Amino acid sequence: ADGNIYLGSYDNCLYSLSLDGKFNWKFLTGKRVGAPPAVHNGNIYFGSTDKNFYSLKQNGVMNWRFVTGGLIDTPACIENNTAYFGCYDNSLYALNLDGTQAWRFLTGGPVMSPPVVIGGILYFGSWDSYLYAIRLRDKKVIWKFKTGSPPVPPKDFLTDFIEIVDATEKKPFSFSDWKPETLKKSYEWQTEIGNI
After folding, report:
1. Quick one: which of 94, 128, 96 has its CA closest to 111?
2. Distance (Å) of CA 119 to CA 34, 79, 123, 134
3. DSSP string computed for 58-93
């Protein structure tokens, strides 16, 4: 992003490297940074397991931090000047990009699934075993689907899946017509980078 690489590490730091691998800077948090950051309009947004969500300038100087009630170990989604991220305090947070809380949605378990916004609908999973769809214009849950275990879908999988499913109130969500072969991509495991 923006000609640089940003990555978190289990040594509690967020790193910035140039594309040719040269060290730019590192930002120290209180605990590990296990999820990749989001970059938006020249700022970097990420959470740490120290329970803080951070915004940094491109030079690594902190704009602000927001204190949550639990560790943060999933990437944020930036949409319409709002940062969405899950937290182990059972919440999905929506923050304005000045660091103030816009709203918060409480689930029955830690929110470990990366959120994604498509067509004005926010999708994410919780360890309460539900996959949620929230319409952003009125913050209304338009459906939630009970799975057999906590849903933690990869973002790209969920993005493609949503293109197949029409998530509106007129057509309730259903897995009944879904088949794996309808997906347009195949997915592979990715290795997490840490302990730089």
Report:
1. 128
2. 28, 11, 11, 11
3. TTS-EEEEEE-SS---S--EEETTEEEEE-TTSEEE
Contacts for 86-92 with beta carbons within 8 Å, 24 or more apart?
86/110, 86/111, 86/112, 86/113, 86/114, 86/115, 86/124, 86/126, 87/47, 87/51, 87/111, 88/112, 90/126, 90/128, 92/122, 92/124, 92/126, 92/132, 92/134
Q: CA 41, CA 109: separation in Å to the nearest integer? A: 32
DSSP 15-26: EEEETTS-EEEE
Close Cβ partners of 174 (under 8 Å, ≥ 6 residues apart)? none
Q: What distance in Å separates the CA atoms of residue 196 and residue 191, rounded to the nearest whole number?
A: 14
- pTM of this structure: 0.77
| Best CA proximity match to 159, nearest among 184, 136, 142, 178 | 184
Query: Tokens standing for 44?
Result: 């970097």
Side chain identity at residue 81, one-letter code: N
Cα gap 142→19, rounded to integer Å: 42
pLDDT by 10-residue block (mean), the chain, 196 residues:
88 95 96 95 96 97 97 94 97 98 96 93 93 95 86 52 48 44 39 44
| Residue 112: both structure tokens together | 């470990």
Q: Which two tokens stand for residue 147?
A: 């799975």
